[in-house]
Prior knowledge:
The chain is α+β, with helices and mostly antiparallel strands. It has one helix at 62-77, and strands at 6-12, 15-23, 27-28, 31-32, 35-39, 42-50, 53-56. A hairpin with a 2-residue loop joins strand 5 and strand 6.
Amino acid sequence: MAEKIFDIRFxxxxxxxxxxxxxxxxKQNGIPTSFHVVLNDIFFGNVSNGSGNWTNSEDRxxxxxxxxxxxxxxxxxxxxx
Length: 81
């Protein structure tokens, strides 16, 4: 997988979110171990997926963190190694 910044977009709780994701260079099983996320021009946090659950380095709503993770998973699913 090429390392590059990619955009994400989704709606949550009546608000539209635009953002970008920067995958870390550290990988496990070929997947970045964390992702630096900015939403609506505000640092959202560094998110990572451990045991199937998305977590965030910042205090953010769990459902919003999960939706960021879903967007990351969708993007990663489109990448061919």
